[in-house]
Amino acid sequence: MMKMKISALCSFILLTSAAAIDAAPIVPQDGLWRGDATGGSVEDCNPMMENMLQNNGAFTQKGETRRIEWGGKFDPNSMNIFNEEGAPMAWESTGENSYKGKIFDGSSCANADTSSCTRVGATVTMQLISPTKIEGTTLVELGTLMGDTEAMAALKQMGMADCKVNVTYDVQRVGD
């Protein structure tokens, strides 16, 4: 009986230790990182849009390489160097090693505080898979991006007001 209790206790300790290790945050390595598009899809878009994106390599584009100093933790703000100049971002944690963010149309922001922005340019997700790899998606909804403008009226005429473009990407550490 005592042997069974000790065995059960040892099993419990091993299981809870493994769960604690799995739940621990992953720490990305400092160094050179490159983001590459790995695929994509379109929804409710004019077929010409999908052809254009396929033909210009938007779903397979190789990105720039940048040096990232993570400061000992996974923080997507460390990757803002990959964003276009003047494109404010706001991130929220969706798990231990994952985030969801919004890239705002900078012209819709009254100041540097993203709470004043009115138009989302894209929704981004990223998850740190290992110390050297991040996987993510970027979703652009053309109707949301355009807001209530003449450009939106043109999109409606072309049947693209509900067009969504989703791009998957990997960001990998490629060197010191």
Task: Give your account of this protein's structure.
There is one protein chain. With about 180 residues, the chain is α+β, with helices and mostly antiparallel strands. About 25% of the residues lie in helices and about 40% in strands. The chain is built from four helices and seven strands, in the order H-E-H-E-E-E-E-E-H-H-E. It has a seven-stranded antiparallel sheet. Strand 5 and strand 6 (about 135-140) form a beta hairpin. The termini are far apart.
Oligomeric category:
single chain
Helix content: 25-40%
Class by SSE composition: alpha+beta
Radius of gyration over C-alpha positions, nearest whole angstrom: 21 Å
Fraction in beta strands: 35-45%
H/E series? HEHEEEEEHHE
Instruction: Identify the strand order in the major beta sheet.
Output: 2-1-7-6-5-4-3
